[in-house]
Amino acid sequence: MSDTKTELLQTALRLFANEGYENVGTQKIVDTAQVKKPTLYYHFGSKQGLLAAVLEATYAPFLASLKAQAIYNGDLTFTLEGLVSHYFTFAREQPVVYRWGLALGYAPKQSEACLTMRPFFTQQLQLLTQVFEDAVPQHGNLKGRSDVLGITFLGAINASITRSFY
């Protein structure tokens, strides 16, 4: 990756996380990164393209490791504890990214920010829901409740981590 592209990604992350995606224009990004607008458009196509690239760079590695952690091994408690630990580690190592990701999830439903973040949130939810679904043969009382358990589990993790930030 070119130094200019990396600088734009880092600058955008910092500005988006500190000021909010909607509050940061492309001019501010390029001025802060000390490049010209055509450079941003060359690398990312648009502000939303830059947002997608920042999310890909920050969340794709987390999701890949989450996928490995979300493999149900026959011990539901062990699997869930591992997932909680994984989220807390990510939040501790990448607090700016974690908090920013949560904020994007609460952006207006049809906003560029929310729409761009949605696939990353959906992947998390699908992985967590699948853990509960895979546990049904050993825990029959989970049958038909995987969706509710997945979202509730993710909400409890996010609430616990958010509380730990303060």
Task: Please give a structural write-up.
By secondary structure, this protein is mainly alpha-helical. The protein is about 75% helix and about 0% strand. The chain contains 8 helices and no strands. Helix 1 packs across helix 4, helix 1 packs across helix 6 and helix 7 crosses helix 8. It is elongated.
- Taken from the alpha-carbon principal axes, the silhouette is elongated
Strand-and-helix sequence, N→C? HHHHHHHH
Q: Span from first to last CA?
A: 36 Å
Q: Report the biggest beta sheet as strand number plus sense, adding barrel if it closes.
A: none
Poorly predicted runs: none
By oligomeric state, this entry counts as: single chain
Per DSSP, the total helix count is 8
Strand content: under 5%
Overall number of strands: 0
Helix content: over 70%
Q: What is the average of the pLDDT values?
A: 95
Q: Helix/strand-derived class?
A: mainly alpha
